[in-house]
Structure formats: structure tokens, C-alpha cells
Automatic annotation (TrEMBL):
InterPro entries: LigD_pol_dom, NHEJ_LigD. It comes from the Bacteria. Residues 33-287 form the DNA ligase D polymerase domain. The keyword rRNA processing does not apply. It is an enzyme of class 6 (ligase). Gene3D superfamilies: DNA primase, PRIM domain. GO terms for molecular function: DNA ligase (ATP) activity. This is Non-homologous end-joining DNA ligase. The gene is ligD. Keywords: Ligase. It holds the Pfam family LigD_Prim-Pol.
Length: 301
């Protein structure tokens, strides 16, 4: 990836890409430019793509960074190269085409168009909404709580999932909370949502002063929301290793180990920027590899 010059033509996997606005500062607090974000995605692609490949992708687009206008885009961004694959997806609004990220070149092409956050469903385009192959629980801290409390909740949820024969993998969201994934044998979205809701209810029954399953803001103060609804077929979750458009400096949805979850004493302990994530993967590999490889898929109880 280029290090300077505001516009350059590069070749990625045999495709020529005209990269533009490379000197644009996207995150004033850290000084990260578009060129740096593009470099991150080009280097992290081998780790990110297993969690996005084959899935209809939505993006959070923000061409000028988090301080500018941003929006969720399901349709391919204008200017998307013809060689980037697309699949038809049925939504409430009707049939639409969505991008499928199958290569480093496709990922870099989308980021170049200001599509900085990558979001995917828990099913592939081939399997469709009746073939969810992973479960996700989104732990979101309400006012008065933080990531440390989410980690304590996650440890207990891990035990409950394990008792049901499911293996949990933690990913810090790159914002405030924590995501738990579990590979499952393909099941309809309704079944995945039903199980996730029941599991969240069990956790709330154990710890009513700590956990909530309602989206109502008035009920969330001092508690962690277990958002089970992310398993609905129409919903998406930010992909592991995606950059987050957090104010001032870029967060990353970073896979972490259970030892790190257990040892978290401060939210800063599990806050990682792009360069840190690249270093972690280079040194330790991908702690989420079991999820991407489909290992340990178990039926929903």
C-alpha cells in the first residue's frame, strides 16, 4: 500500500485500483490517514476474510471519517469495480444486490470507496437465512458499567454455552462492549434467535442486578445488555478485525483470548488500534481461528 501521494494506482491480486484521498486525516486524535487505514486492511485481510467470505456484506460508509456524514450501505457503493462479486438478497424493502468480500482486492476496493466498517450476517449467501452457522451475543454496557463488567458476564456465558455443548469465542467490539461467537450447525435464524434469547434470559435470572435483555434505555443503567437479537436473519454484526469509526482514533473489533478476558481490569486493557492488532496477529496468530474454520460446530440445544 502507498505511504504518501494523495492519489496512486496500485495492483492488488491482479486488479488495478486507483486509490484516492490518501492523505485525508480520518481520525484527528491519532492522525490516522486513509492511506494508513487502507494499509491496515490490506495486511489484515488474511485474518478478516474467513469471517466475511461468502456473506452478503453491509458497510458503514463515512468518506470523511467519523466526524463527517456516515450511513449504513447495503447496496454496492457507487464506483464498485465490476469484478467484485455481488449476491441478491431479499429484504423487507425488496430485492437488493450486496457485495461479497472474497479477496484482499475486493476489501481494499471497498475501503477505498469510504466503506470503512464491515458488517456481516451470521449466514452465508449460499446457505441463506435458514442456514445460520454461528451464534452471536452482543454485550453492551449501559451507563455505570463498562467493558470490565462485560468480561465478567462473558465468563459466565461461556460456562452456560459450554454446558450446552457450544464453544464461545470472545471479540472486543472496538467500541464499548464485547461480542461472543459460537459456531453452530446450520439452523434457521428463528431457532438461533430463540436459543440466544433463552440463554440471555437464563443469565438475567441468575444476575438480575447485572444483566438486562430489554432494549429500553431506562432499564439499562448499571447493567449489561445481552443483545440476543443480533441473531435475526435481517441483522448484521461488525466483522472481526473490522475498523470501527470511533471518535478521534480508530478502534478495531479484535479477537481476544479468554485469559485476556479474565485478566481485564480496565477497558484500556482490551482497546486496540490497527497497528496493535497487526502486531498481535503477527506474534500470536488468530485466536478466533476455530470459528472461521468451522471447527466444533454443535447443534443448538
Amino acid at each position: 500500500m502507498p505511504a504518501s501521494s494523495d492519489r496512486q494506482v496500485v495492483e492488488v491480486e491482479g486488479h488495478r485500483l486507483a486509490l484516492s484521498h490518501l492523505d485525508r486525516v480520518l481520525f484527528p486524535g491519532s492522525g490516522h490517514t486513509k492511506a494508513q487505514v487502507l494499509r491496515y486492511y490490506a495486511r489484515i485481510a488474511p485474518a478478516l476474510l474467513p469471517y466475511a467470505r461468502g456473506r452478503p456484506t453491509s458497510f458503514v460508509r463515512a468518506p470523511e471519517g467519523p466526524a463527517g456524514q456516515s450511513w449504513i450501505a447495503k447496496n454496492p457503493p457507487p464506483g464498485s469495480p465490476h469484478w467484485v462479486p455481488r449476491v441478491p438478497v431479499e429484504h423487507r424493502e425488496g430485492l437488493t444486490e450486496q457485495i461479497v468480500l472474497d479477496s484482499t482486492a475486493a476489501l481494499v476496493a471497498m475501503v477505498n470507496l469510504g466503506a470503512y466498517e464491515v458488517h456481516v450476517p451470521q449466514w452465508t449467501a449460499e446457505a441463506g437465512p435458514d442456514g445460520h452457522d454461528r451464534l452471536v451475543l452482543d454485550l453492551d454496557p449501559g451507563p455505570g458499567t463498562d467493558l470490565v463488567v462485560c468480561c465478567r458476564v462473558a465468563q459466565r456465558l461461556r460456562q452456560l454455552l459450554d454446558a450446552d455443548g457450544l464453544t464461545a469465542y470472545p471479540v472486543v467490539s472496538g467500541s464499548k462492549g464485547l461480542h461472543l461467537y459460537a459456531p453452530i450447525r446450520p439452523a434457521p435464524g428463528r431457532a438461533a434467535s430463540r436459543y440466544a434469547k433463552e440463554l440471555a434470559g437464563r443469565m438475567m435470572g441468575e444476575h438480575p442486578g447485572l444483566v438486562v435483555v430489554s432494549m429500553a434505555r431506562a432499564e439499562r443503567r448499571g447493567k449489561v445488555l445481552i443483545d440476543w437479537s443480533q441473531n435475526a436473519s435481517a441483522k448484521t454484526t461488525v466483522a472481526p478485525y473490522s475498523v470501527r469509526l470511533t471518535p478521534d482514533r480508530p478502534g478495531v473489533a479484535a479477537p481476544v483470548t479468554w485469559d485476556e478476558v479474565a485478566g481485564c481490569q480496565d477497558p484500556a486493557d482490551l482497546a486496540f488500534g490497527p497497528e496493535e492488532v497487526l502486531g498481535r496477529v503477527a506474534e500470536h496468530g488468530d485466536p478466533l481461528v476455530g470459528l472461521g474454520g468451522g471447527q466444533g460446530r454443535a447443534p443448538l440445544p
